[in-house]
Automatic annotation (TrEMBL):
Protein name per UniProt: Putative transposase
Boundaries of every Transposase DDE domain copy: 4-399
Xref: Pfam families: DDE_Tnp_1_4
Entries under InterPro entries matching the protein: Tnp_DDE_dom, Transpos_IS1380
Length: 399
């Protein structure tokens, strides 16, 4: 790696008590930027936006806010905390310089987001190659797929911002949809993509689910045009639309999608014989008292849905004090999901689907890394900011 793509000083640790610096623990973070190749990739990808005689590399200007939010910041202004330590973080651009670059990038948002996404994808390929057997895509197969979780979240705008609107919960702001690459129960996760949307965007908008899935799949190294069953797309019932499931079927990926229930399906579930039910599992794959799973595929009309789609339902006695929903039946809390996985016990498939709750942890992490506060006015500028948040989430996972 040549000097033009080394963003941060290479600090050497000594025990002599001299030359003490604050934020020394973030050396792991800055070295991750360098060793992963992210510095070189960002520098190349954003090279077209570098002006003649510019002092600061646009790649570093974008990397610095990502480093700042991982180091404890939560907004663009917190870049000041790393500007104070050039011995640790190198020369950090001034606030006006950062703002000018983001405005310039926002003038061509599609090209900018594509460039940053390409840099992240190339870096991810290098990181996963270095990880070897620990890489998320190591030995993936139809029975051991790489999981991509999709979910949307509400982000409040505390001032007037472009495309901020009222949302279905009575708040005001944005409704981004994100995809996360799951690392399994023993790890964290990486950001596939974050699609910024107005606050009034629908939870079940199939076009947004498709756009988010395409962008996330583009982040996975060495995937063919049709990824196949070694990729599992997992989301809640907002994704259970005909258009989205038809898209997943055409891509030949595995899926596990929440499936909405109504009174008619509740009546069918009530009539299932006792032998149709099998105990559900706890997170440790032990039978769970008061919870069962059954298959609905052969007893409900699935015409119009993709071929090979199965529907599995879980019933559970609510804990004391819990309120039943209108779709629950006969004192049971009911949830269902659709999948095209043909093998495995029902309890294992239901446990796999239930583990999508880890996506909520990724969203909380994203909000800790800047997604909670979209700091700029224009929609395009804030979309660039979400790309910086995605960088921060990835760096946090790669350290």
């Amino acid at each position: 790696m040549n000097n033009s793509t080394v963003f941060y000083p290479h600090i050497h640790a000594t025990g002599d008590g001299e030359n003490l610096v604050s934020h020394a623990g973030t050396v792991l973070l800055t070295r991750t930027v360098e060793v992963s190749g992210l510095a070189a990739e960002l520098s190349t990808a954003l090279g077209p936006w570098r002006t003649p005689l510019a002092r600061h590399d646009p790649g570093k200007i974008i990397a610095d806010p990502a480093v700042a939010v991982v180091a404890g910041g939560d907004c663009l202004a917190d870049i000041a905390t790393i500007r104070e330590r050039p011995d640790t973080f190198g020369h950090v651009a001034s606030d006006p310089t950062v703002s000018r670059l983001i405005s310039t990038l926002a003038a061509s948002p599609a090209q900018t987001l594509s460039a940053i996404a390409a840099a992240r994808a190339a870096t991810r390929a290098r990181v996963w190659a270095l990880a070897g057997p620990a890489a998320p895509n190591h030995d993936i197969s139809a029975t051991n797929p790489l999981v991509i979780d999709l979910d949307a979240t509400l982000v409040t705008a505390h001032s007037d911002k472009q495309s901020a609107t009222g949302n279905y919960k009575g708040g005001y702001g944005f409704h981004p949809m994100a995809a996360f690459i799951d690392h399994g129960p023993g790890g964290t996760g990486e950001a596939g993509t974050i699609l910024l949307r107005p606050g009034n965007a629908g939870s079940n908008t199939a076009a947004d689910h498709i756009t988010t899935t395409r962008a996330a799949l583009a982040q996975i190294p060495d995937l063919p045009a049709r990824p196949g069953r070694k990729i599992l797309i997992r989301t809640d019932s907002a994704g259970a639309t005909h258009d989205f499931l038809d898209y997943l079927h055409k891509q030949r990926v595995s899926y596990s999608i929440g499936f909405g229930l109504d009174a008619r399906l509740g009546d069918i579930i009530d009539r299932l014989p006792k032998q149709a039910w099998t105990p559900a599992y706890t997170s440790d794959r032990e039978p769970r008292d008061g919870a069962d799973v059954a298959e609905l595929t052969g007893v409900i009309d699935l015409s119009g849905w993709p071929a090979g789609m199965r529907v599995i339902v879980r019933r559970e006695k609510p804990h004391p004090g819990a309120q039943l929903r209108i779709t629950d039946s006969s004192g049971w809390r009911l949830t269902a999901f659709a999948t095209n996985t043909t093998r495995g016990q029902l309890a294992d498939l239901e446990l796999r689907h239930r583990r999508r709750a880890r996506c909520e942890d990724r969203i909380r992490q994203g909000k800790d890394c800047g997604l909670l506060n979209l700091p700029l006015f224009s929609f395009a500028q804030n979309h660039v900011w979400t790309a910086i948040v995605a960088l921060a989430i990835d760096l946090n996972a790669w350290m």
